[in-house]
Sequence to fold (1144 residues):
Amino acid sequence: MSREGLILKLTCPDQPGIVAKVAGYIAEHQGNLVELNQFSDSLNAKFFARFEIETPGMTVSVDEFISGFGAMGDAFMATWHFRRLPYKMRTAVMVTKTDHCLNEILWRTGLGELPVEITSIIGNRDNCREVAEKAGLSFHLIDMDGDNKESGFGEIRKILEEQQVELIVLARFMQILPDDFCADYSGRIINIHHSFLPAFIGASPYKQAHERGVKLIGATCHYVTSELDAGPIIEQEVERVQHFHAPSDLVRLGRNCERNAIAKGIRYHVHDRTIIDGKRAIVFSD
Amino acid sequence: MSREGLILKLTCPDQPGIVAKVAGYIAEHQGNLVELNQFSDSLNAKFFARFEIETPGMTVSVDEFISGFGAMGDAFMATWHFRRLPYKMRTAVMVTKTDHCLNEILWRTGLGELPVEITSIIGNRDNCREVAEKAGLSFHLIDMDGDNKESGFGEIRKILEEQQVELIVLARFMQILPDDFCADYSGRIINIHHSFLPAFIGASPYKQAHERGVKLIGATCHYVTSELDAGPIIEQEVERVQHFHAPSDLVRLGRNCERNAIAKGIRYHVHDRTIIDGKRAIVFSD
Amino acid sequence: MSREGLILKLTCPDQPGIVAKVAGYIAEHQGNLVELNQFSDSLNAKFFARFEIETPGMTVSVDEFISGFGAMGDAFMATWHFRRLPYKMRTAVMVTKTDHCLNEILWRTGLGELPVEITSIIGNRDNCREVAEKAGLSFHLIDMDGDNKESGFGEIRKILEEQQVELIVLARFMQILPDDFCADYSGRIINIHHSFLPAFIGASPYKQAHERGVKLIGATCHYVTSELDAGPIIEQEVERVQHFHAPSDLVRLGRNCERNAIAKGIRYHVHDRTIIDGKRAIVFSD
Amino acid sequence: MSREGLILKLTCPDQPGIVAKVAGYIAEHQGNLVELNQFSDSLNAKFFARFEIETPGMTVSVDEFISGFGAMGDAFMATWHFRRLPYKMRTAVMVTKTDHCLNEILWRTGLGELPVEITSIIGNRDNCREVAEKAGLSFHLIDMDGDNKESGFGEIRKILEEQQVELIVLARFMQILPDDFCADYSGRIINIHHSFLPAFIGASPYKQAHERGVKLIGATCHYVTSELDAGPIIEQEVERVQHFHAPSDLVRLGRNCERNAIAKGIRYHVHDRTIIDGKRAIVFSD
Fold:
């Protein structure tokens, strides 16, 4: 949506009348509901929804609209979130050696596919510096090997805070994040894992895939939690492979899966199309 | 939905407040909205929606609910349709020689994937009689070759009327339907075409595909209109092929596309997940 | 190949000149090499090949041709296998409750897609009896629960021996085979597992997939070894799913993956397009 | 293959003994056949093959090996082609406005996926100049609108000749090539068309696709002939779309198809994995 607007995401216990009340609230203030996605999870008696609203014609200010919603949200026992549009999410990208996911993010951002403002590229190796700097972005090389891990992540936190980063994208970042870091940025870290999770968790998934002789390889974009490669999945891509593909071929073919999965994952997140629900993610894809 | 319920499909000029009003009407009568799909077509200023409603707790009868909606629908300048659930759609399947699509329909109906009541199998060849009769269904062999076309389709109409058929599925039926037949059953005839339309319209699409050397073949499930293979598309499936696949291999590999596409197409139609909009079909897939 | 012919499968240490010598041997006896697939596995210095040969014009008998090859095979330090065409492989299908894979096998066999001779259907539940008997096949109900497992598998062995079964297909057979049974029929048992292996090994993979929130589900056709769900993979199929798909929807959507994967797996095996290489399978797919 | 070697492509009337003789010739000179792909087209009685040979251990020079093959090739009534490895094909990329295909080619070339030497970027608009020059490549802006078409293509020919270009890639180049240009560079021009050919030939295929309401969009990489969008197809990619995708969404989603299809198409061509056979292309994909 290029016009001014709002996105409302909502999660609450399932109950009759939610859509009527929320849509009624929007209509009452002359908001224009342009897209509505909802999911009634009958297994768990939970309700999830995303409302995309054009606001220029509203009879109240956006601030009043948002604050006025509180009583209804509370009555639903809901958690909810409003986002004002247009919006560019402040995003830091963390990398190690390979740059194909970083390149893809830069390229799609340039095309307008990803409404993000990239604040900085943070690497624990220097390999991606050139790509970052060619794109006019600052590159922070942070040593976080061995004993420097704690101080390194301290530095990273400082950068993220100074730059008011809202989203951290691990674009083939090959270090395990500290638990407290995962906890503090819960729901705001997106990773790309180069396998079709939950197959091949951990290191060298393409080598594992080759040894196991799978006929499809994949990549998984997911939210990061303290449990390795186990956070809510946003998007997965697969590609057919054959016996003659060596591990190096899987690396080559897998890059495509990784690039697509991370780009879609970021897009869904920054468009507020994802709602985390325990170990799963609701994704109202577009 | 296995409980008692209603599906409401609605098309109207786009305007603010539709969802609020319809959902409000449902809530007001204590209906429970379990699924809502909507599409605001900003290019054409049209609105499309499907509401799935549990009715057991309603404060009015279903009849009253439906008739009470009329004033609102008229105010929207809408066309709309209600379906009571549970429902089995009375369906005739028309065939010629090959039986793989027929088999798939019978098999999925048996599994409960397709809520249809198959009234009869109608063939212009006798090949599928055995499959039909093994399944306990009556098989009508109707001669509609050459000069017998008009009388043949007259007989078919009689069968369809006597059996109160609501949906006609052309499951690899290899005759072109008369224009008036297409018109009279508009929106109620589903065909499977064995190509990825609009490529390879007409006869022998696999042979055409082989000659053209395409790298993917496909099948298209679509509503039938008087223009050959040009009706609104409901579902398409593709399969990768290579140079060594002879036309007979394309036939073999294409069967899978055909079976899946027709089964999904029927499912979407009988679940009221499709809305025809000129030459296109809105499909709220599940 | 519908004409008379031979398939030669060959595995040996990689070395120059193998293709020249084998193709030379075929040409020398006026065999016609109609298809050749080879794979030089440079990582492991191994060579694998499949030769499909028309034999009607040969200057020697097929028996002489086969026995004459021995010296060359030995010189390569190869293992090899000849199959005379046309051939129908004697195949037993083992089932439990669900019949969709069995149905698919029967259906594709009828169409000529799978050159098998189904000797019998063996079930540890009675559910598939009707499908078997409608198809004119004998159905053996064998109790192999709890204490009856050993005697049950004894009975099965007797049936397999009497009927000279060459291939055992586990078409959603829900019992773990005894280790000695796996060993004795090594390379001759094909299973369909209803997940994208190695994800979701063991019971209830669709339930596991739902809990994990994956965005693609799959099915895996593989050779059976004594290690559960870990044998060489022949074929894998996937299907995209979303958050609103309940476990019962995954079961429904997964059936398609299962049907396709098992049908392709059987086809590749009976056409001698697979070569087992440790934990992996070379598959010269068609 | 990173070692020194040869690729032999061969087309001839089908006849017994071809593989034996060619493989025999290679073995006789101690060449090492590392990959062999063949296709016996029984419908047209034609034989196609690709031999990949390591040459360091050969008993003759590569020149002698190649010239010595002539008698055999003639005896087969074959057309054939040898390529010495390692090889980088001299490639010109022609563009108009959009740069996503160009970017992809540059990116994959940098990664070593495409063994090409990009000689220059030629545009009929100036939009891609920056991308070209950032990559250190010369950019030629050539006016070929209206009356300048003939002189423009004259200039292009001069550039191609001076730079000894072997492959011309049309990376979303939006002009129709003159017939004589197509003829003179026959088999050496690769185009990406942004539809699933033969559907939506010509201009604005995404708009056409939207109007037709297709459920999958695609892209086609093909050799260019004087008949518009009708040359032999090398690769095709598809992506699923829904009713809510506006033409601008199809453009966005289609970019992925285009990027993958053109990258694969170039890779197959420069690895000599394609053989043109009339209106079709044999593709021994890897």
